[in-house]
């Protein structure tokens, strides 16, 4: 049986590649998983996603909003309050990446050990 491979220069392939680049970005996946249990404020997200700069968080949230995965709601308070929440599309992505996050969390110790053993062998 011959498998037909897609034309990587086709508009469909480029569009799919663009979507996979968004959902494959490490910050996007972490934010999607984090928002899976409800709306969060910017600083809540920043504290929960260790190591992300304010600028990178802003850019990532903007990208997720642009792609229709996250909504941004600004409340007319002083100081201004902004909440981020998954859209229906974002929740469908969460359903796909949440098991991956759970797997990573459940296996991080094993992977850390394997890395240390590998590094010791080649070190």
Which key features would you list for this structure?
5 helices; 123 residues; mainly alpha; 3 strands
Instruction: Give the terminus-to-terminus CA distance.
Output: 45 Å
Secondary-structure element pattern, one letter each: HHEHHEEH
- Fraction in beta strands: 5-15%
On the 0-100 scale, what is the average pLDDT?
89
**Overall shape:** globular
Account of the protein in words:
This protein is mainly alpha-helical. It contains 5 helices and 3 strands; from the N terminus they run ααβααββα. The protein has helices at residues 11-24, 26-35, 42-48, 54-66, 88-122; strands at residues 40-41, 70-75, 81-86. The chain has a 3-stranded antiparallel beta sheet. A hairpin with a 5-residue loop joins β2 (70-75) and β3 (81-86). α2 (26-35) packs across α5 (88-122). The radius of gyration is 18 Å and the shape is globular. The mean pLDDT is 89.
Q: How would you concisely characterize the structure shown here?
A:
The chain is mainly α and 123 residues long. Helices cover 64% and strands 11% of the residues.
Sequence-ordered SSE layout with sheet pairings:
Blueprint: H1 11-24, H2 26-35, E1 40-41, H3 42-48, H4 54-66, E2 70-75, E3 81-86, H5 88-122
Antiparallel strand pairs: 1-3, 2-3
């Amino acid at each position: 049986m011959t498998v037909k491979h897609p034309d990587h220069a086709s508009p469909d392939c480029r569009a799919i590649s663009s979507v996979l680049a968004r959902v494959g970005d490490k910050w996007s996946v972490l934010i999607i998983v984090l928002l899976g249990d409800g709306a969060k404020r910017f600083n809540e997200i920043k504290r929960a996603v260790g190591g992300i700069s304010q600028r990178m968080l802003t850019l990532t949230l903007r990208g997720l909003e642009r792609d229709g995965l996250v909504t941004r709601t600004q409340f007319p308070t002083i100081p201004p309050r902004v909440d981020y929440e998954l859209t229906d599309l974002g929740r469908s992505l969460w359903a796909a990446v949440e098991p991956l996050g759970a797997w990573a969390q459940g296996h991080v110790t094993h992977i850390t050990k394997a890395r240390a053993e590998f590094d010791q062998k080649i070190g």
